[in-house]
Amino acid sequence: MPDLIKVAKFGGTSMADLTAMRRCASIVSSDPDKKIIVVSATAGTTNHLTELTVEQSVEERKQIFIAIRKKHLSICKDLGNPALLIDKVENLLDALEAITLRKQIMTPMLRDEILSFGERLSSTIFTEVLKQESGDEVEWLDARRVIKTDDDFGNAEPDIPAISEAASKNLQPLLAQSRIVTQGFIASEPNGHTTTLGRGGSDYSAALFAEAVDADVLEIWTDVTAIYTTDPRIVSDARPITEISFDEAAELSVFGAKVLHPATMVPAIRKNIRVYVGSSIHPEKPGTWIVRDTKDKPILRAISLRRNQTLVKVHSLDMLHRYGFLAKLFQVLAEHKISVDLVTTSEVSVALTLDTDVNKPDNSMLDSEVLKELQKFSEVEIVKNLSLIALVGNNLDATAGLSGPVFGSLQETNIHLICHGASSHNLCFLVAEDEAEDVVRVLHKRFIKS
Ligand SMILES: Nc1ncnc2c1ncn2[C@@H]1O[C@H](COP(=O)(O)OP(=O)(O)O)[C@@H](O)[C@H]1O
Ligand SMILES: N[C@@H](CC(=O)OP(=O)(O)O)C(=O)O
């Protein structure tokens, strides 16, 4: 049987320190098919680097830089300070220091360059750890030579044909000779500048690598043993899911299950690549297989929660028996590059949520200028501090009598917006942020756990 190609991604928690890195190296070295290894920055490093990109005094930035330096050099020290590795890590740290301590105007382009150091450092160190652990040939690859995007810094859009071409040239020849360690999250735009795929984007990178080499399996190794029926941090007796469909996993990730970046399933679905989610701490425990078709198709499989939602209610009597109002509303939003997520309408009003921009997580894209334009032809009400709860499963649009018991069990809760029927895989609604976790617990107990 010909070799399989597996792409394995290890998240920040799996790269936390040398012990964690060695666990990952042992997962890789026990399976010759794991050919492309995509790693995230060590736990907490991207947050630290982000702090370097916001307004800080030089002294504050120095302290953050020192913490980053100490963390990475201490892993190298535990590894026995191999001279070649120290050279590479010191070079990266010097370059980071030069960029961050220089006085300059922070641009989205510079921000992405600074953020890229997390993955560049972790992947450099992990390459050495894997070499020592496996004794195999291991090649470090700069992901920016393969993952090509547009220039929307901070949330760049992959260019699939360009990635495919770059993979044939810069990745396939290496694949024949050795294992490859590369970075998640980072990419490059047509002029060669560094871009990033948005927070948590390493899962997406790994899926793009898997698509580019026609991989058989994409593995996501993380700090939970599987995808659970809901976030185990909210419901301690949530159950691990053995098998889930592409569509259900896509809905879960889009609606807030942090275990997968929202776009991860897109390349996997395009190329029908099976995805495995497992724990790098307990690799022996069964994880979750995400496949095109599952044996069982429960009506309700899981619940996800997405925080920090803003509801925009646009009200106008002009809507009554007229045409063109929605087009006018969406035109204003489109002109300001505001992407809408959920929409419901009545005869005289429209309620919508905005797709959260990773660079503006507080939804500040709805600035006074946009509001002024909308207010020319409507009344606008904004409700903040909401959470979106999604029930994910199968045939939800065709299941009679589902919403009655769901909303019946939430009689004390004010539901702000309900979306049901647009997808057969989800039923979602908005509630106040401070009630959201309780709502998840109630629904999980009543509809999932039993
Ligand atoms: N349905 C779910 N199943 C499993 N984990 C979930 C789910 N929803 C949210 N999570 C959270 O996702 C976390 C893993 O994602 P993340 O922190 O991004 O990991 P990594 O560092 O490996 O990328 C888990 O610790 C868990 O709390
Ligand atoms: N390091 C990046 C990308 C990433 O995906 O990280 P993680 O796999 O730890 O979620 C971030 O923190 O956003």
From TrEMBL:
The keyword Transferase applies. It comes from the Bacteria. Its EC number is 2.7.2.4. Residues 314-385 form the ACT domain. InterPro entries: AceGlu_kinase-like_sf (IPR036393), ACT-like_dom_sf (IPR045865), ACT_Aspartokinase (IPR054352), ACT_dom (IPR002912), Asp/Glu/Uridylate_kinase (IPR001048), Asp_kin_monofn (IPR005260), Asp_kinase (IPR001341), AsparK_Bifunc_asparK/hSer_DH (IPR042199). The keyword Nucleotide-binding applies. It is an enzyme of class 2 (transferase). It catalyses: L-aspartate + ATP = 4-phospho-L-aspartate + ADP. GO terms for molecular function: aspartate kinase activity. Keywords: Amino-acid biosynthesis, ATP-binding, Kinase, Nucleotide-binding, Transferase. Pathway: Amino-acid biosynthesis; L-lysine biosynthesis via DAP pathway; (S)-tetrahydrodipicolinate from L-aspartate: step 1/4; Amino-acid biosynthesis; L-threonine biosynthesis; L-threonine from L-aspartate: step 1/5; Amino-acid biosynthesis; L-methionine biosynthesis via de novo pathway; L-homoserine from L-aspartate: step 1/3. Belongs to the aspartokinase family. This is Aspartokinase. It comes from Rhodohalobacter sulfatireducens.
